[in-house]
Structures are given as C-alpha cells and as structure tokens.
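Morning, I've got a small favour to ask if you have a moment. It would help a lot if you went through both lines with me. I owe you a coffee for this, so here goes:
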Amino acid sequence: MVGAKVVTGHRKQLKRFETGSVRFLTFSCVGHENLLGTAAAREVFVQHLTWLAHKGQFALHAFAVMPDHVHLLLTPAQDQTVDKILEGLKKRTSLKINRLLNRTGPVWQPGGGYDRNIDTRDEYREKVAYIHQNPERRNLVDWQHSSANAYLDMAYNGPEIVFLDDDFKW
C-alpha cells in the first residue's frame, strides 16, 4: 500500500493507507453525545457533505447521519486524503452545529475515527447495507439524513450518490 501515514487516534494509533480506494468511515460526536440529535443539526452536516462532494473532494457512495455518529462510504479524489476530507467536514460543521445548539467546545471525538479500505464488491454491498440499516437498528427511521432512498429509487434530495456498477475494477 502506498503512502502509509500514522494517525494518532482517541485510543490507539492506526495506520491509514491512502490508496484512492473506496473507504468506509465512521466518526462520533465528542463523548458520544447526541449533538446530531435534531433534524436541524443533521441537516447542517448533510448540507456540508453535499457541498464537499459537489466540489469534487470525493465520490459519495452511501451515508447515514445518526444522533451521535456518522457513517460514510466514499472514494477520495486523487488530490485528497481522508484526513483532509475529515478536517473539512468536522471544522465547518462544528462551528455551525455549535451555533445552532448555542454551545461551545468540540463537536467531534478527537482522531480519525474508524477507517477501512473496501476491496471487494461483496464488502462494498455489505457496508452499504450496514449504513442504511443502522438508523433502523437504533429505532431511528430517518431516511432524510441518509442515502437509503437513493438506493431504493425513491424521492431523494441529498448529495449526489455515485453508484458502483458491475464494471467497477476492484
């Protein structure tokens, strides 16, 4: 793997390999607080996610915004790293969420969160299903702040979702 970088996380050091491959990311609110517990706070996150995807920083394949954490499945653009993408997402959304909730302090748990390279079509499909089922498992039927409706071919107003077809080369 090319470009290994050691990232100091919340509890351990992890090696992040910047390969340009599909990535499954999960990161949490500080102290696992429900800082994304309102539709307005989740919308702040989705709007910024949409803006970054539209700017071409990554191809977004799936996402779900939960009250205390976020799941993303994306492919960073050639000139981007996961660290840069997360920094861009976390910095701007922290300011806006704090303003919305009339609070100060960190919004996001320190470190890079969970990051996994997705290397097979089956693993990709498994992660898409996991992301879309996560709100339901937590009794949160909030399809507005996930990409589930895009996959179900229903009304969808979120960021552009890039579907990987059978021709995608793993």
The radius of gyration is 15 Å. Residues 82-101 form the longest helix (20 residues). Helices lie at 39-54, 82-101, 121-137, 148-151.
